[in-house]
Each structure stands twice: as structure tokens, then as C-alpha cells.
Amino acid sequence: MTTPLVIDTDTAQDDCVALLVGLLDPAADLRAITMVAGNVGFDQQVRNAFVTLSAAGRLGEVPVHLGCRRPLVRPWVSAENVHGDGSGGLSMDASGLEPEPEHAVDALVRLAAENPGELSIVAIGPLTNIAAALAKDPGFARNVGSLYVMGGSNNGRGNITAAAEFNFYVDPEAAKAVFAAGFDVTVVPWDPLTLRQAVFDQERLDVIAALGTPLSDFFGRVCAATLEFDRRVGIDGTTHPDSLTAAVLLHPELVRRSARYHVDVETAGELTRGYSAMSWGVHGLAANATVIEEIDSEGFFALLVEVLSRRTVPTREITGL
Q1: Which structural domain range is residue 72 located in?
Q2: Per the count of CB atoms within 10 A, which of 46, 49, 153, 246 is most buried?
Q3: pLDDT tens for each residue of 151-163
Q4: What is the pTM of this model?
Q5: What is the pLDDT of residues 77-105, one digit of tens each?
Q6: CATH number (domain holding residue 104)
Q7: 3-state DSSP helix/strand/coil percent for the chain, to nearest 5?
Q8: How many domains does the chain have?
Q9: Cα atoms in the 13 Å half-sphere on the side-chain side of 171
């Protein structure tokens, strides 16, 4: 049985790997890709999504919808210093390729309403599109079966400021609205989960490189800039929170420990913009989210190796691959 899902993404580095999971894992029924302003320039994100679709051999099969090009009330903040262009310089002839005319927010509302309670959303960028869909349709949260969010830190450090993880920092107002809306939401936090259990060190990267497939080569290229950045800041490998978020939706057996928390997001603090306050049940606050605390790291790595082992043929030639 497959899981119907949408991936809401700011496609760069591990977002590309998350798309490969959604496109190639037999457990996934990827209904759409929706684009949100985040990691790199918006148009570059769209190009990265099309290149990833081609690398998977599925270009033209999954609709791409363009969403919000900026946060709800703030200027856009980039992570290009981390990811470069997000695709390791890969490019492709995009002539004739067009995203869907339907706006991503409208697509999210429609897809959730068509089969209430069945659609899962994997939100691996800022939560702007999700919050906008809430504003458009008061029943949106009720219609979504489950919402898996990569964002925040569980009483740990940030990755764009000392306090904040990037996705929540970019659009804290959107994140705050989403956690107040009543979704069945599961959170994959940056710290400690990603930093301790979803980092691929050189030994794991060597295993992937040795696969010798177009997808393993693609992985190496899209992750190269981030790997260089991570090493400069003391992380010994590539970080994979986005593909982990897709993986735990499709394979809940990867989750070893999770707990219910009350999650809220700081929007007003001068030093703590985007901070995710995760209360573990002792502060008199009702839980509104499941936060994953531990995963089967080896199992997650094995899943990605299985995906990257597939000998796909790119739909269109990808320059640099």
C-alpha cells in the first residue's frame, strides 16, 4: 500500500534527495511538488526540482506548482552561503518545461479536500505555503491526513542563529500559525536528531560514491557545497534532515523514539526569532505535535542507499552529471 503525499520544498541539496525518496520509493505515491521560498533563489529552486525529476527518470510525470515567493510578512532570507545553487552546478535544457498554472497553495487545498484525511504533506522548507493554505481554507488542517515538518530544534542549537533553525527563522509567523492550527503534525528537528543521527560521514559517502549509478553521482554533486560548509562549521559529513522527513513518513519503523510536545515558535524576540519552544509536558501546555527524538540511523542510510542504487536513466541529459 502506498502513501499519497505532496512534498513542499525549497529545493536545494537534501531537498533534492528527499524528492528522490518521494519519486522512487515504492511506498510513495507522490501527487505533487509545491515550491516555497527558502534555500536559494526561487527560480533556481524550480530548476533544481526539474533537474531532480529528470535524474529520477520521472520528468513530466509529477506536477510542479509554484507557491509563495516570499515569507508572509518578512523579507526572504537565503541559505546560498550554505548550498550554493543547491544542485552542484548541474543544469539541463528546460525548453518546453513549464510548472503547473495552478498556484501551490490552491493545489494543496484542492488535493487535501479531494480525499479528506488521506493526503500527507512533507514540508521541508519554510511553512509559508502551509500557512497560506490555512488562511485560504479554514478546513485545510482537518483535511490533511498528516503533516511532517522538518524544522526547529528540540531544546537545542540553531543552524542560522544560535537560537533558530533555518526554516522556522525564515518565516516564523507561518510556523507559529501552523502549530496552532490543529494538524496531525510530526516534527523532524535539526538538533539533536539531524546533527546526531542523519549525518553521513566520509565512510558513508564513500559507500554511496561506490554505487556508480547516475543517482549516486547526482547525490555527490548536489551535496558537495553543503558538505564543504558543514565541515567548516564542525559537522563531519553531509546533513540529511529533509530526506529523513520523507523517509519516516513512508517508513515509520525507522522511528525508535518520539514524544508528544507543545511546540510554539518565537516571532518577536530580537535574538530568538524563529526559536522553537518545545515543551515536554511539565509546563501545563497541551501537546500539539509529535517530535521525533531517535531514529534507526543505519536503517535510514540503508534506505537512501537502496534509492540511490536504482539505475535510472535521466529523462533529459543533465550537464555535469
Answers
A1: 3-319
A2: 246
A3: 999 999 999 999 9
A4: 0.98
A5: 999 999 999 999 999 999 999 999 999 99
A6: 3.90.245.10
A7: 40, 20, 40
A8: 1
A9: 26
